[in-house]
Amino acid sequence: GEVCTMINKKYSEFLPSMQSAEDLVAQVEGLASNIDLLKAGIENEVQRDLTVAVAEFTELKQQLERDTLVLSVLKKLQEFDTTLKECSSALLEKQYVTAAQQLQKARSSLRSLESRRGFELKILKALGTELTVQTQNIIYHLGEEWQKLIVWKLPPSKGSSSLEAVVLSELHLHTVPPQDEDTAVPPVAAVLQALAVLGELHSKLRDFGHLLLQYILKPLISQPSLEPVPEEQADVFILRFRAQELALDEASPMEVFDKIKLVFEVLHKYLLNVPLEQPGKGRVTLAELLGELIWEELSDCLIHNCLVNSIPTNSSKLEQYKEVIESTEEFERALKQMQVLKEDTTALLKYACNVDSHFANRKCQDVIIRARNLMTSEIHNTVKITPDSSVALPELPDPGSGDQLKVPRPSLLHQGVVTVGSGSRLSPLTLGLPTCRISCSVQQLVELAYHTLLEATASTDLCCVQLFDCVRNIFQLFYEVVPTYHRENLQKLPQLAAIHHNNCMYIAHHLLTLGHQFRYRGTGVLSNGAATFVDLVPGFRRLGMECFLAQMRVQRGEILERLSSARNFSNMDDEENYCAANKAIKQVLHQLKRLGLVWQDVLPVNVYCKAMGALLNTALAEIVTRIAALEDISAEDADRLYSLCRIMVEEGPQVFTPLLEEDKNKKYQEEVPVYVQKWMTFKELMIILQANLQEIVDQWADGKGPLALEFSAAEVKSLIRALFQNTERRAAALAKIK
């Protein structure tokens, strides 16, 4: 029973809590369905409204952006329009700077309009055109003003800077400040500033600078008689010119600087002293801008047409050049004060101060020009030199007496005795030159080299080195110029080839000692022994030899050519053949005689004898070869050949006439066998032509006789077979020749 009551009690307690739990479930379910309704509502209505609102907002934002853009574009357009109007009205009132500034403002408005992406207005093109028209308009007005301010009165023959033209030129500057300040004419500064703002000043100034150089500055530099004549009137400044009657050929740099300075002073006063605001450059004066444009050309002209000419040509005048340096410095200083030159510009002064180098350059130029003229002058004007003739040169003063070493006095190559080291003497002929003729021009060339070296020893080191190099250049120039310039004559005329040979040997002879003689002069660069010309010697000897040998080859060719018409000296019993051979021999002798005369008194005797000997030898050798090759010589042939050979032996030596004095040539004619290698061969051939068999065998003497010295056994046998008929006696004789 109690159990039942317990259960009931628990049940009655449980029931209400279950009831409330069920109520709760019901509530939750109700709430859930409410949420579902609300969610459906949101999804169906609010979401839609929200999307619409966002879209509306975005549209409004874009609308606002568009309006802002249009507004700013309209503002720019309005700004453009206003600035153009202001520009026009300023232009009417001749307020050029304002007009130019407004125009530049309008230009930047237009630029910013054009730079907008996706916004190409058709109107922009029209605005651009309007801007261009207005720009051209203002530039035209400024051009008119510029032409009123600066008036050039030039002669009709434009482009000519002759003295006559320049004297007629005038420059008028209407930039004199007027007396009453209220005039409507804009001051010069306004016109220039407006041009600067528009970027047009540079080209106007360039044209002005060009005329200034052509009609004023350059003529003042190059025409010593021109003088500037400035004149100020009430409203205009005029620059005219006049030519002085008595003027020097060259104005000194001091005078030229004064004239140029005067021109810049007046220009500075009436025109160039205008300060400008230069876009991108800040404040500058017109003088600075003009200076930048013309200084390079002006300084070039001053250097080349004025300073160069004032450089001294010999070292003694170098002292006086200080005055030029001072006035150059003063000139540059004045132009810097007027702001025509920048502070760091020193082109002129640098040039003037570098006078040593310029002196050397000018000296070298003069020397090279003189040398070249000498090299291209006639070779055949000659002078005779002998072993004891010394070059016409200045005596060198004694070397410094303070030297511990008593140095031998280097008198300039007296071509006799030369002192060596401790006073021991060389033979007078060691450095002597054989008597011969050389071109006067070459003697002068060597003198020029000595004088230039002499000047070098008195100069500064830099200058000394330049002059020394210049002397080397003279000789190198000779090496290149002479053989080319005189090529034809050296090939055609044997006398010139001989003189050229002597010239080269004469130069080589002097080059041996040329540097050495200046070793004892001062402490200069030449005294260390490095200044030498010895390395040039072999080249000059070769040059002389090659030219002369070429001439020898020509002469040899002519001799062989003439002998080739002698019909091989065969069948001399035929009258026609004999005449041809006789004529050939006479022609060869005539050629040699003529050569002997053109080389007479020209070549040194030993060279003369060797040369003539070699040519005579060519003729004799050729005759021997031809006769030795004959297969048949009749008795009559032999007689006639003998008489032809006798002509050669009798008249050949007479072509040796090295000296003018006839009686002195005998000695050389007797020495012909020394110079003519085949002389004895030729004489032996003549003996054979006249001899009988026994005499020939005797001359051979078992290969020990004189005949054996000149001919081989085969040649002698061949001659015997040609001269004698085939007999037992001939066979016996032939057997002995072996």
Automatic annotation (TrEMBL):
Pfam families: ZW10_C, ZW10_C2, Zw10_middle, Zw10_N
GO biological processes: cell division; endoplasmic reticulum to Golgi vesicle-mediated transport; mitotic spindle assembly checkpoint signaling; protein transport
Main localization of the protein described in the UniProt heading: nucleus
Keyword Cell inner membrane: no
Keywords, in A-Z order: Acetylation, Cell cycle, Cell division, Centromere, Chromosome, Coiled coil, Cytoplasm, Cytoskeleton, Endoplasmic reticulum, ER-Golgi transport, Kinetochore, Membrane, Mitosis, Phosphoprotein, Protein transport, Transport
Subunit structure: Interacts with NBAS and KNTC1/ROD; the interactions are mutually exclusive and indicative for its association in two different vesicle tethering complexes. Component of the RZZ complex composed of KNTC1/ROD, ZW10 and ZWILCH. Component of the NRZ complex composed of NBAS, ZW10 and RINT1/TIP20L; NRZ associates with SNAREs STX18, USE1L, BNIP1/SEC20L and SEC22B (the assembly has been described as syntaxin 18 complex). Interacts directly with RINT1/TIP20L bound to BNIP1/SEC20L. Interacts with C19orf25 and ZWINT. Interacts with ZFYVE1.
Protein's name according to its UniProt entry: Centromere/kinetochore protein zw10 homolog
Naturally occurring in which organism (per UniProt): Sitta europaea (Eurasian nuthatch)
